[in-house]
Write a structure and sequence with these properties.
By secondary structure, the chain is mostly beta strands. A hairpin with a 2-residue loop joins β4 and β5 (about 45-55). It has a five-stranded antiparallel β-sheet with strand order 1-2-3-4-5, with no helix packed on it. Strands 9-8-7-6-10 form a five-stranded antiparallel β-sheet, covered by helices on one side. Helices cover about 10% and strands about 30% of the residues. The termini are far apart. The radius of gyration is 20 Å and the shape is globular.
Length: about 160
Amino acid sequence: RMEGLGFYTLPTGTEYRGELKDGMFDGEGELLFPNGGRYRAVWHRGVPTQGKYTFADGLEYKDKKWHYCDGYDRRFYTEICSGLKPAGISQLTNRDPPRKIPVGCYDCGDGFYNPETRVIVDYKRRFLRNADDDEHEWIIQTCRKAQGKTTEHKPNP
C-alpha cells in the first residue's frame, strides 16, 4: 500500500498530493481538480478533518459567513478584484470573456450539457456524467445556454 509522501491521480483527472498512510490520504495533502480548483486539508484515514477550498480564480471558500454572490452583492469575483465594466457592457460569467458554448448546449459550471443526449462533458469535451432528472431541470432553468440561433430551411411556396 502507498506510504509516505506521494501523489495519486484519480480517473476523473483530480490529483492528490501529500501524505499517505496504509493506502489512504493521511496527514497534510491537497486535491488538485482539473478545473484549477484546489482543496488543501489535513486528512485522517482518508477523511478531511479540516481544510480550505480555493477556486481556480483565487477565491477562497468560507463555510461560515460566506458572502460571495449573495442577495446583496451579485458581483463576480473578477469584478470584485478588477472593478465593474462600463455601463452597457455585461459580464455574463466570472470568466471574461465567457466560454463559447456549443449550439444547443448549456454551460453548467463544470462543463457543457447537451439536453438531447443528457450528457455532461468537461470543457475539453471529455465525458463527465449523465444528468438525472433533477440535474437536467436545474440546468435548463438556471444555466447559460448557447446564444447561437438555429434557423430552419423553409422551401419557397
